[in-house]
Every structure is written in C-alpha cells, then in structure tokens.
Amino acid sequence: MKLSENPIFITQKRLTHRTGVLAPILIAALIGASLLAGLIAYLADPLNFSFHSPQEAGKTFYGFVIGVEILVLVIGGFSKISRTLAEERKAGLWDSNCLTPLKPAQIVCGYWLGSPLREFYMAAILAGTGLVIVLLGRLPISLWIGTQILICSTALFFGLLAVLIGMTLQRAQGGIIFIVAFILLQMPSLAMPKFIITNFLLPTYGIFHLFLDSGNSGNDYSMHDWSGQPEIFGLPVYPVLLSLILQFVIGIFLWRGAIRKTANPFQPPLFRWEAVALFAIFLAAQHGLIWEIWRGQFPTANHYANSEQETLSIVHFGTILFAIIILAFISPQPETVRVKVMRSGNRSFGAIFPGSAVSLALVLTAVAALVLFTQYARSFADSWEIYLIAVGNLLSFFLIFSLLLEFCRLRFKRRALGFVALWLFVLCVLPFILAGVFTNGAIGKLSLFSPGIVALDDPNDENLNNLLDIVAAHFGIVVLLFISWQRQWKQLLAKAA
Amino acid sequence: MSNPLLAIEHLRVDFPEVVAVNDLTLTVNAGDVCGLIGPNGAGKTTTMRAISGLQECTRGSVKVGGHELASEPDELKRQLGFMPDFCPTYDQLTASEFLDHFARAYDVPNRAKRIDECLELTWLAEKTNSLCEELSRGMKQRLVLAKTLLPDPKVLLLDEPASGLDPLGRIELRKILLQLREAGKAVLISSHILTELSGFCNTAAIMERGKLVTFGTIAELGQKMGRRQMSVKWRTDDGKALEILRGANVKNLEARNLGAMFNFDGDTNALDELLKTLVTQNVRISEWRGTGDDLEQIFLQSGAKELM
Q: pTM of the entire structure?
C-alpha cells in the first residue's frame, strides 16, 4: 500500500488540514524571508555589517534557519506524534485502527509520517529558504545537502521514538517532557563534542562539522573542538556518516518495537536480547569514541592533546543512566508474570529469575565490563583495582536498581514508583547532601554513584581501598534486597497457585 | 450441530485483583443474536475485548469464523466487527470521512456506495458532511455502528449499543439487528436494557462475577429457570378460573378484576396443560401471557444480581 493510500496517513492529513496549515506555513515563510532579507541587505551593503565575508554571513543566517528547522521538525514533530498517539489511544481510536486488517507497519507509518505534516510543511519552507541563503552566501551545496539529510534523519529517528513513546505513555504531555529531558541531558556533553555519543545521535557534531568544513569564515577558532573526524577505536569516521549509522541501527530497534507493540499490545517494546544488543552497541560506540584518549592504557597514558581525564567517569555515569532506563523497560510487571505462571503451570521460583530484570542486570554488567576493558587492555596489570571498582559499582548499582524496582512493584503496586524514587534518593543523592551539610566529602563517597565515578575521575587517589570497601558495603544492600525480593515473588507465586 | 461463527472455550481473563472472566464457554451460530447479560462488573465488556484481541487472555480459545485468535489474528479481524461501549470518533472529520477512513482500512469495495448505504441504514444520511464533534452522543453511537457494519463482518460484537440512543434510535437499532439476524450474521450484544434485547435476541448468556451463570436459547432458559410470572384475563367472573388456578401448581396468586397474576414453577408443557384445563372448563380467556419480559424474568431468576 502506497503512503498516499494509507487510511491513517490520509486521516492525519485531513485532520492537519482541517485545523489549518496556512498560518504555520506563513510563520515559517516569514522567518525564512527575514533571514534571507538580512543576507541580501549584507550583500547589498557589506560595510554596515560585522561579517567578514559573504560565507560568514551566509553561515550565520543559514545557522538560524536550521536552528528553527530542528526546533520545528525534531521537537515539534516528536511532540505532535507522541501527543496524537496518546490522545487516540485514550479515545479508543488506536484500538479501532488496530482491529482493522491494516498491517502494523501501515499503522505505524500512518502516524509516523502523517501526524507531523504541519511540521513537515514548515520545515520544507525553511529548507527552501535555506537553499537560497546557501547559494547567495556562496557556500558549498554540500553544506545544505548534508545538514538537510541530518535534520531529516533525526526527525525520522525521533519520530519513531515518539511513536513508541506515544504507544506506551499514559499522558499526552509525557512525550515533550521526554525530549526536553533528553536535550537537557545532552547539554553537558557539548563540552566534549567529539567524545560523547549523544552529540552524534542528536547530530550536533555532524552539523557543526559541516559548517566548519564549508570554508573558513574568519571566526571558526572558537569551535575547534568541533573540527576533525571522530574515531571509533582509532578508526576515523565521517561524522555525518556516524550519525546516520547510529540513528539507523537504533532506529531498527525502535521500528521493531513499534511494529511488535502494534501487532500485539501485550508484547514488550524491547525483547531481552534486543535490550542487550542495544546496550552493547551504545556502549561499544561510546567507548570507541573515547578510545583515542588512552588507547587502552587508562589511566597511565593520556594521548589526547587536551587532558580529558574525567571523560571515563562521565561515560560511567551515562552507562548507569542508560542501563537503568533499559532495566526499567525490561523489568516485568508482576501481573504479567502471574498470568504467565498461571498459563504455564510452572510455579517454581526458577521460572521467575530468567525473566526478571535481575538476570538482565548481570548480563548488562558483563557487557559493560567487557567494553570497559578496552580502556584498560594495555594497562590492566597497573590499573586492575580501578577496573574492579568500576565494574563492581556497575554490578551493585544495576542489581540494586532492578531488585528495588521489582520489590516495590510487588510490595507497593501502584505506589511503587514513589518508593523507588525515595530509595534511589536515599542511596544516591542523600549522601551528597549530607556531605555538603557536614562538610565531609567522605560521606558523599557512600552514594551508589560514587565509587566508580571517583575511581575513574581520580585514578591516582590513594584511598582506592576505601572505595572497594564501599562497593562491598553496597553488595550488602544487594543481599538484603535480594532476600526481600525473593520473598515477594514467592508470595506472588503462592497467589497464582 | 451447526458450525458456530463465534466459539469461545474456557476463556479466562485475569486482572490484578480479580478474575474478570472465568472459564467462559459459549457459541453463537449464524443467524443468532445472543444477549450477553449481567450486572456491572460481570465481565461483559472484558469478554468482548478478549474476543477482539484487545484484552490478553490468561487461557482459553476464541474462534471467529473458524479462525483462532491466538494463531490467525489477521484472518479473525476481517470477520469481526466490534462496537465498543463508548464512541471513538475523529472529532474533526465529517461522518463520511470517518467512514471513509475505515472503508479504506478494510479495503471495502465500492467505498462511496457502501458508506452511503451504512449512513442510510443508521439514519445518518443527512449528517454525511457534519463534523463528528457536531453529532450528538446518540448520533455518534449510530456512526460507530455504521463503521462496524461497513466491512460487512460475519460476527458482530456490540457493547451496549443502545445506551446513548433515543427511543426512535432504539427502534431503528432493533430493526437493524433483525436484518443482521436474517442476513445470517452472528451477533453478541451486551446491554443493561433487557426489554431492548428481548425484541431480537434468540439466545442469551447471563454472566455474573466473570462466570457464565446460564446460556441457551430464550425458550431453553425459560424452561431451565422453571418459573415464570403469568397474567391471565377472562371475560366472565364466576370464580371457576381462580378455583382451577388454586388447584394447579401456581404460587403468589393475585386476583385482579376479571383476571389474575401468578408465578408458575412448571415447564412449558405444564403451562399449556393449565391453559387447556381452563379452556375445557369453559373459562373464556381473553389474555394469556407472561408478564414483563422473558429475558428480564430469566435474568432476575438466574440470581445474577448481587453486584447491581
């Protein structure tokens, strides 16, 4: 079925047109026209402007165009798709569409490409204006092609993410909260553009690189961090290509999840093997990007011109965040497990463990340990202790989070989220607050986050043994939680009987 | 035995704190309109959602037109029309655009003609170009019914279809359902308004707390319950009729002016015998009927009212 014949696409188009597209198109056109007018004014009378060349003026004005385009297409499109889906699910229209013989791919494509049509129109106007600016500014056409490809692929990638989020969110506004949180989390990574994967997933590096690559315009020195090609384990990769590959590979997982959930709403958005593969790809790409700093000799040899010593601790923190998102997604709802147990008749505790987030936590730790080892491969004899602390910290964190999440879901049911947040606050944040209150940095090291981050940030610290003790203490919490977790599952199994 | 168009076997649906549907087995044959009756929370809507695949089943099987839900969901979707108990419509689409959306989704041949037919059938021909948001609740209900009828499914699941309809709409709904019955469709319909169901249901399933209390044709159920309330009227009052009734197997006999009301515990044959006795004893009967409604009686007698 062609997209133009897809009933969901047609309906979304009708709905978009009925609520009006002229005003947004005119807004986009006015923004574009204003920027174009600015460039024309500069070309007519260059002395009245502070630009050094037509290229510099062109880049500035085109930069504004693509800024607005990203805002409209990526953020606006994401918000529109997730909101549409959440609202249609609430209204029962999603169910009505799923009951038709339409294939899941047709349903997903209909929403993915149909609901942000207004944003597509606006982006098309801005892209057209951008092309004129690039031509008038005597900039290479490759700048326009490259940036537009990146914006389109990013819009499609985040659109697909929005479909999946809209299919699972309870509230229509949740989608925009997600993307704003993502962008805010990405902000700190701008300090190390070449080394952090989010700069390629949201292709800021690729876009800046294209700008810097399109001729010297006089004031590019301040952006030297954005020049040059990133390397994956020492292999240079063209940044635009890296962004496209990353978005495509992760997009495959998102697509599979969206299709699976449309075909059967009771299927998880992510299978366990997919979660492991996604985690491995993310981590391998991330460690590949920072490999050039130590080239397997952490922490003894820093090969990078600028000292980027703290990078590995930042990656460690990112690893923890990414893993807990995956663990939260994969952790089975107690009700699903109960139904499964009733269906299979297998009421032994052994049937619970392989499907729980706890076993996945072990697998994710193994993957993380393996990938982290690439930073130590040539210095392991000297730095095994730091490695042990980092891996131990990952293992204890992943286990505590998954045990806590499942325990709270079993024990507190609908109030589980609040209790998980409470305990994570106590275990992760409270030590830092107390450290500040009592001006004693040692208390801060008790946080679940601390041992790995402290060890990686300051590998020459003489108190590494203390950190090992703290990791061991964290495993004490794991044991206590495991006992409570096991008891809760056994109670559920007894109920299922 | 005929091959049922809808066959549910040992269906069970679990919710966190309750078994919503428990070991439900029922069949609906071609040309049958089966009333799914039960108090609030009996599991009627959950049953319909489970049949259509919108609710996960713990165990049991659902077959629609011979296609198993678990293994052939796509084939099943083509045979099934589900009308939920609320009205999911695109508010910013017109009635005909709304139907066009689903006609395209079901790949209905002669789309425009079929849309007009369905709008005509549901008395919405005048509202073809009205936006869905401008329609009243009853009209939306009829529009969703038109959407359900659009692909001409073999099996229809109608969840409280009459709840938002005005009296005229209910009469029209009854006509439509009778037409569907004649066309050989299998219809499973839930409603709280038992008098509405009585007009066109030939089978009924009574549910309570997720369990099937009883299931069968209306006649079978009447016999199964073994007790019905009767109203009888006669032209002359000589006391003979009341005497015969007192001597027969009746309860709660209540004499009225030229007539009486009573409960009868026997089966249909025994009731026929009683009528025969009255006639042979020269009682001039002017009316002989079950009072209220058969389905209502069956429901009340089934005991499925604890949750009402």
A: 0.86
